[in-house]
Amino acid sequence: MASHKTVTTHRASKKTITATRTAVTLATATVGSIALVPGLAHADPGANLNDVQNKVKDLHEQAEAASEAYDKAAGDLATLQHKVDQIQSRITAEQTQLGNAQSALGSLAAAQYRAGGVDSSLQLMLSASPDAFLQQATAMNELTDKSANSMKSAQEIKRQLDQDKAEASADLSQLQKTRDLMAQNMADVNSKEKQAQDLLNSLTKTQRQQYDTQQKQQASQQTKAPSVALPPAPNARAQIAVNFAIAQLGKPYVYGAAGPRSFDCSGLTMAAWAAAGVSMSHGSSDQAYEFPAVSESDIQPGDLVIYYGSMHHVGIYVGGGRVIHAPYSGTVVQYAPLHSMPVVRIVRP
Questions:
Q1: Please, where are the H alpha helices in 223-333?
Q2: DSSP string computed for 104-134
Q3: Count of CB atoms situated within 10 Å of the CB of 67
C-alpha cells in the first residue's frame, strides 16, 4: 500500500525504502514451529482438522495484511521524517537570516539617529508588525529606499519562517499519527497470530502431528521446480529478478523481512528487483503504483502481481502461469499458480 525509481532509468520523485530493512520483531513466535503448550484444553478427537487448518490459514492471511499495512506505514514514516528534517533545517537558517535582518534595521536606525533622528516610519517598524505598515509606508513614501528594502527582507523572511513552522507542526502531528498506526498494525498482527496459535494448541497430539506433516508436504511440493522449464525473461534485468526469487525458494516468511534469510511478500519482490538495480517501497500497495500497469495478456517474467482488493499481497511472475511469493507466517517462499489468489493489478518494474 505513483512514481518509481531505479538505479539507472526510473524517475526519483518518490522516496523509496531499501532492501536492508530489519525484520519486525513479534511478540509471538512463528506459528507452526512452536511445540504444544501443556495445560491447554485440547480439541475433541473427532474435530475436523481441515476446519482448524482453514481457520489458521485465514488468521495468517489477516496477519499478513496487517503486516503489509505496517510496512506501508513504515515507508510513510521515513518519508515524513525526511521532510520534517529538511523543514527544521530551513527554520534554523531562516531564524539566523531574520536575526541578521533585524540587526541591519537596528543599525540603520542608529545611523539615522546620528544624522538627526530616527525616521518615524522606521521607528514604527522596529516597534510593531511590519505587514500593515509597509503598505502604508510605501504609499506615503515615508521610507528611504534602503529602509524599505531592509523591511521587505525582514518581512519576507518572517513570513517564510512562520509558514515553515506551521508546516513542521502539521508534519510532526502526522508523524505521531503514523507511529500510532504502526503500533495498531503490529497489535493486529500479534492478535491474529495468537488466535492462530491458540487454535493449534487446542489440537490433540495426533492432530498436531498430522498438521505439521501436511505443512511440510505442502512446502516440499510448492518449492519443487516446475516440470516444464520456465520461459526466459524479456530482458537481463527481469531475468536477474526472477533468478533471485527462485534462489529464495524454501526460505521462511517473517513479517517485515527483506532477506537474506527470510522474507515477507513485498520484501521478497523488493529484494528481487533490488538485485537487478531497481529500488521500490517495502509495501505491496505502494509497489502496485510505483510502476506502469500491464494487462494480464501481456504479462512477462519479472512482472509484479498484486493480489486482493486491499492490495495486501504481491508475488513475482516467473512464467508458465506461476508466481513466486512469500505467503504468510508458518510458510516458506514458494511457487503458486497465477490465479491461486484474486489478481487486481500487474505492474512492470
A1: 236-247, 265-274, 284-287
A2: HHHHHHHHHHHTTS--HHHHHHHHS-HHHHH
A3: 31
Output b/e per residue, 279-300; b: 16+ Cβ within 10 A: bbbbbbbbbbbbbeeeeeeebb
1-30+228-349: CATH architecture: Alpha-Beta Complex (3.90)
Considering the candidates 4, 10, 60, 325, report the single residue annotated as catalytic. 325
Record the cell numbers describing residue 229, joined without a space: 522449464
Query: Mean pLDDT per 10-residue run, the chain (349 residues)?
Result: 39 38 40 36 55 80 81 81 85 82 66 51 52 51 58 78 83 82 81 84 86 82 84 96 97 93 96 97 94 97 95 96 93 95 96
Catalytic-labelled residue, pool 4, 10, 60, 313: 313
Residue 171, SS3 per DSSP: helix
Q: Is 313 a catalytic residue?
A: yes
Residues of the chain with CATH 3.90.1720.10: 1-30+228-349
**Is 265 an active-site residue?**
yes
The three cell numbers of residue 84 are: 520534517
Beta strands in 257-326 (DSSP E): 278-279, 304-307, 313-319, 322-325
Catalytic-labelled residue, pool 10, 60, 265, 282: 265
Handedness of CA 246, 193, 196, 309 (dihedral sign): negative
- Torsion, CA 301, CA 304, CA 306, CA 312, rounded to 10: 130
Q: Which residues 6+ apart lie within 8 Å of 79 measured at CB?
A: 15
Query: Under a CB-based contact definition with an 8 Å cutoff, are residues 264 and 333 in contact?
Result: no
Active site residue 339: no
Interatomic CA distance for residues 293 and 349, integer angstroms: 9
Grid coordinates of 82:
525526511
Q: Which letter, b or e, does each residue of 151-189 get, where b requires 16 or more Cβ atoms within 10 Å of its Cβ?
A: bebbbebbeebeebbeebeebeeebeebeebbeebbebb
| pTM higher than 0.85 | no
Q: How many CB atoms lie within 10 A of CB 200?
A: 23
Residues 131, 159: Cα–Cα separation, whole Å:
9
